[in-house]
Design brief:
By secondary structure, this protein is an alpha+beta fold. Helices cover 18% and strands 44% of the residues. Strands 9-10-11-13-14-2-4-5-6-7-8-15 form a 12-stranded mixed sheet. A two-stranded parallel sheet has the order 1-12. A two-stranded parallel sheet has the order 3-16. A hairpin with a 5-residue loop joins strand 13 and strand 14.
Length: 294
């Protein structure tokens, strides 16, 4: 009897996987809303005007109160994420085949670009870990990347459903266990009809590549039985982030021109910029109080 039940469960899982098609071309518009508790103030110290070697730093702040709209375009191994606000326009081009991420920035009339390999991002993330831990130890903040690291993720599926962007979605609970032993639960609404090739989610901090998951501390979306269409996360200091897909097109032919880089941009490698070959980058996440995640 036990063998029959096991075989039945395996057959059910196989059938569910077969029904979830993998889409290789899509255009997705996503709205991210970050809200702070009433009366909270931004107490985070301003970022330093220059690096250790005196190089200029360009600071990007993500996660302040309000709405941010992103448009994500997928074709095969290429993913483009476009974000625009009052001060800047940022386009992130991800090549999953070459494992490189190019960030194009348009600020104050200047057009610059940074090309980073996955190894570059891992090294930068390690350095950021060290900086944040040092800041925490010196009383400059209470966020610690190390303790915020997710060590395990579990998903609990429910029968609840609703429509998002015209698609029928189901509710799931993503439960993350962190290095410090804490657990947190994120409610995720997902569409079981499809997944996107090489693209786990859109909106939120997904446009920042590997930094995004580290800063928000949300893991496990890649294991969902479908594509995440809406989720709400708790951030530090009582804040929350709501991410929702507002429009998605799965049947449109995407042109290769979408991923071409204009000659107006001055491209540099991340290593060159870190070695004083141009303005460095500093990302400030989390809105009031700085930092992200739990």
């Amino acid at each position: 009897m036990k063998r029959i039940i096991t075989l039945f469960c395996m057959a059910a899982a196989t059938a569910a996987t077969a029904q979830t098609k993998v889409v290789t071309q899509a255009v997705i518009t996503t709205k991210t809303t970050t809200v702070s508790p009433e009366g909270s103030e931004d107490m985070a110290p301003p970022p330093p005007p220059s690096g250790d070697g005196g190089e200029q730093r360009v600071t990007f702040r993500f996660g302040g109160d309000g709405e941010t709209k992103t448009v994500t375009t997928l074709k095969g191994d290429m993913v483009k994420t476009y974000t625009e606000n009052e001060m800047s326009r940022i386009t992130t081009l991800r090549d999953n085949a070459k494992k490189t991420t190019t960030t194009l920035m348009e600020m104050m009339g200047k057009k610059t670009g940074v090309v980073a390999t996955d190894e570059d991002q891992a090294a930068a993330a390690k350095k950021l870990d060290s900086m944040m831990q040092s800041r925490s130890q010196n009383g400059g903040g209470n966020f610690n990347f190390s303790s915020n690291t997710v060590t395990a993720s579990d998903i609990a599926y429910t029968e609840e459903s609703k429509k998002i962007a015209g698609l029928q979605c189901k509710k799931a609970l993503v439960i993350n266990t962190r290095k410090n032993g804490n657990k947190d639960t994120t409610v995720v609404w997902y569409c079981p009809d499809f997944k996107l090739q090489g693209l786990v989610s859109t909106g939120g901090t997904s446009g920042f590549g590997g930094f995004g998951a580290r800063l928000t501390g949300l893991s496990g979306l890649d294991n969902l039985a479908g594509f995440p269409m809406q989720y709400e996360m708790k951030l530090n200091r009582g804040r929350k982030m709501i991410v929702e897909v507002t429009k998605i097109t799965l049947d449109k032919e995407v042109s290769d021109k979408e991923f071409e880089i204009s000659k107006d941009f001055e491209l540099k490698s991340m290593k060159d910029m870190q070695n004083g070959g141009g303005p460095g980058m500093m990302f400030r996440f989390g809105g009031p109080g700085g930092g992200g995640g739990q």
